Amino acid sequence: MECSGNFYLHNFKFIKSDHFDDSFLKNGISIYEVIRIENGVPLFLENHLNRLYKSSEISNFSINESYCDFETLTGELITKNNILRGKIKIIVQFNTVNGDKEKNLLIYFTPHYFPTSEECKKGVKTGFCKAIRLNPQVKILNSEARIRANDTIAEKKLFEVILQDNDGFITEGSRSNVFFIKDDELITPPESDVLQGITRLNIIRLCKSENIKLKEKKIHISEISEMDSAFLSGTSLKILPVNNIDSFEFYTQNQVLQKISGLYNKSIEDYINERST
């Protein structure tokens, strides 16, 4: 099921999960965020909410709920379900019914998969997929790019696909951001071409604070053979080495990769400790 746990929230009301119904999301536009929960703490919640508000603004919709509202609701959902590790999805749906504008708010635990220690060590299998997000700055449910990516992942039995545009430039993973390493420098597609992932945001912050070389630039598929290593970043994935993209293979034990992974894990520990005291 899409909804896990015993209870979910719909428009500020707790409802038993066996009554979960999200069929109404097929209509209108739904923007969303998926937040990782560790030790009962929603990781980087303020970053996720900033992006949610930005998605709403770009889509010309208005979210009336405040930061405090979302913080309270997610905290109550965690307590109500007594789940300390997992993922929470926040969906805000905007729809027009009989000429009237309607908004729905859903918050619920969703089934999660966090990479295994073996996947984190050996890396994961990926492939290319030609698909373009019309507005990569907005996190929208059921986009055409998402559907095409899912089909490719299932067909080729991949962990993830790396999207490329019609000119052969790499943008991002279907549910992740992508980084490459050449020598001692991280290289990632520019912010304007990708969904600004929360993990990506924190990796860039760590690179600046720790003087790790990082360049944002367009990356053509013809340049991939020059890269030493590659990794995915995301809420569920954290920092996950890539073993290969189709026929291109990468070194998964790269020192720069391991350094940034260690720094990111430490930043999660610090975040949890600050909010647990």
Overview of the structural elements:
- By secondary structure, the chain is an alpha+beta fold.
- It folds into two domains: about 5-110, D-amino Acid Aminotransferase, Chain A, domain 1; about 115-270, D-amino Acid Aminotransferase, subunit A, domain 2 (D-amino Acid Aminotransferase, Chain A, domain 2).
- It has helices spanning about 45-60, 65-80, 115-120, 145-155, 200-210, 255-275; strands at about 5-10, 15, 30-40, 40, 85-95, 100-110, 125-130, 160-165, 170-175, 175-180, 185-190, 215, 220, 230-235, 240-245, 250.
- The strands form two sheets. Strands 7, 8, 9, 10, 11, 12, 13, 14, 15 and 16 form a ten-stranded mixed beta sheet that branches. It has a six-stranded antiparallel beta sheet with strand order 2-1-6-5-3-4.
- The longest helix is centred in the C-terminal third of the chain and has 22 residues, at about 255-275.
- The protein is globular.
- The two termini are about 35 Å apart.
- The mean pLDDT is about 95.
